[in-house]
Design a protein that fits this description.
Helix 2 crosses helix 3. Helix content is about 35%, strand content about 20%. It has about 475 residues and is of the alpha/beta class. The longest helix is centred in the first third of the chain and has 23 residues, at about 130-155. The strands form two sheets. Strands 5, 6, 7, 8, 9, 10, 11, 12 and 13 form a nine-stranded mixed β-sheet that branches. Strands 3-2-1-4 form a four-stranded antiparallel β-sheet.
């Protein structure tokens, strides 16, 4: 047990649900999203000296991404919210003491799976909550814990992942133990910068030419067509959502957007098949045809993201033929470092980290991947409001292949206006970059006291009065 002068224990927790409507639909694989509910948690911790601090964490409960299924959308959304409430009540009673990384890891290793199993035991098998969904439900609590820990120590979160604050080195969390003996997360961080290149998502339903507009598009002052986004935000990196089950459509989409990128001097592209592909040859044929017919577009593809089913323990596909062509990044598959290890054995070369799979898990995957020579990216979950700040800070310390993906400003820019007033450069893309210079103070540097957001009534209230 990591008991030291810097140890904390959770003493209370609360939870809010913040519903958001999208200005344009977003397609994840076969699921089209038009709204999302964000889970915002507040955690109170106490140090060994009796001092207390609170921390905040937030994650969109993105139903289509965490739980692709033919089950009714509202039923899945309701299950995610119910499970998040269960986790909030359980986490505030969790007796573990230590660093936030230790407590978060201990809960995921000893309680999360049991709670998920108990939750699923009351549901028919076809309606079982997937583990990716369970992680996303836990992530706002885990993020809030790390924020609270930094606040109690009066340090920015990333300054606490050192031997000064952690009594346990990474060999306590990762294997092979001998490779991580005497090493701490901070040993794997890159030098943070105030400015990060930013990626724009071209969704599968996004019109890309004026001829494709049908009059239903929003008239709210924000762009709709990709050329207008490029002009307004100075974009230099485009992520292209593909179908994964229609190679002709996928190829034509890549070519069409690739030509716009060339026309607009956009340097980098990436492709996201969202787990819909079942055979490596599907991706190889698209890439090979692109290389032969449009070599400049092919050269612009920096990496390929998660074409194959995310349950790689069930679908152990040898992907070396794809990664021989382009760097191949795990996303949905990379639940934790153990799955990153399996992915590397199967031929994956990179990992797309996400705070929505927990801050704790993202840090441990980061360390394992870097130790084993894998490349990193930090991908968005269309993060609005507070969720955006831990997201961009993970990218800033991870040393990614190219900046960070950030598309909340495309799909619900008005949702974050209160946070944008305090952090304008983090919620607006200018000259193809995000400006992180407004992050200040301890924890994740949210500056919550300056953000004029009215929260709805809590779904789970604090038990103890201040």
């Amino acid at each position: 047990m990591d008991i030291s002068s810097h140890s904390v224990q959770i003493i209370d927790a609360s939870l809010h649900f913040l519903p958001i409507e999208m200005r344009v639909p977003l397609k994840f694989g076969r699921q089209v999203l038009t709204k999302v509910v964000c889970a915002r948690a507040c955690l109170k911790v106490q140090g060994t000296d009796g001092k207390t601090a609170v921390g905040w964490g937030e994650t969109p409960l993105s139903v289509g991404w965490v739980w692709p299924s033919t089950i009714d959308y509202k039923a899945r959304e309701s299950a995610l919210q119910t499970f998040t409430k269960t986790l909030t009540r359980e986490f505030r009673q969790f007796p573990c003491q230590g660093h936030a990384l230790v407590i978060g890891h201990s809960f995921m290793e000893t309680r999360l799976l049991d709670l998920q199993s108990a939750f699923n035991a009351e549901r028919e098998e076809s309606h079982h909550l997937p583990h990716l969904a369970a992680l996303v439900c836990f992530s706002p609590l885990d993020i809030a814990l790390h924020d609270a820990y930094g606040n109690l120590c009066d340090q920015p979160v990333y300054k606490t992942y050192t031997s000064e604050y952690l009594n346990m080195d990474l060999s306590h969390f990762l294997k092979p133990k001998e490779r991580f003996k005497g090493k701490f997360p901070s040993d794997y961080f890159s030098q943070p910068k105030e400015k990060l290149p930013v990626w724009h998502l071209v969704g599968g339903l996004d019109p890309i030419e004026e001829s494709q507009l049908d009059g239903s598009e929003p008239d709210d002052g924000y762009p709709v067509l990709i050329r207008d986004w490029i002009d307004q935000d100075g974009l230099n990196c485009l992520k292209i959502k593909l179908r994964g089950d229609d190679s002709g459509w996928d190829y034509d989409r890549l070519v069409a957007i690739g030509k716009i990128a060339l026309e607009k001097d956009v340097e980098w592209l990436t492709t996201d098949f969202n787990c819909a592909v079942t055979e490596p040859e599907y991706v190889n044929e698209i890439l090979d045809k692109l290389k032969d017919e449009h070599p400049r577009i092919y050269q612009s593809i920096l990496y390929v993201e998660q074409p194959f089913p995310y349950d790689i323990e069930t679908h152990k596909i040898d992907v070396r033929s794809v990664s021989a062509r382009k760097p191949l990044f795990m996303d949905e598959s990379a639940h934790d470092w153990k799955l990153v290890r399996l992915g590397r054995e199967l031929g994956w070369t990179g990992v797309a980290l996400k705070t929505c799979k927990t801050q704790t898990g993202a840090l441990l995957s980061l360390c394992w991947a870097k130790e084993h020579g894998m490349t990193l990216m930090v991908q968005d979950l269309t993060n609005p409001m507070l969720a955006q700040l831990p997201h961009v800070q993970l990218a800033n310390h991870a040393g990614t292949i190219m900046g960070v993906e950030s598309n909340g400003m495309q799909f619900y820019p008005a949702a974050s206006l209160e946070e944008q007033a305090v952090h304008p450069g983090i919620f607006q893309r200018r000259n193809g970059i995000l400006d992180l210079s407004t992050i200040q103070g301890s924890g994740f540097g949210y500056r919550v006291g300056e953000i004029k957001r009215q929260l709805p009534e809590p779904a789970v209230e604090f038990e103890k009065a201040d």
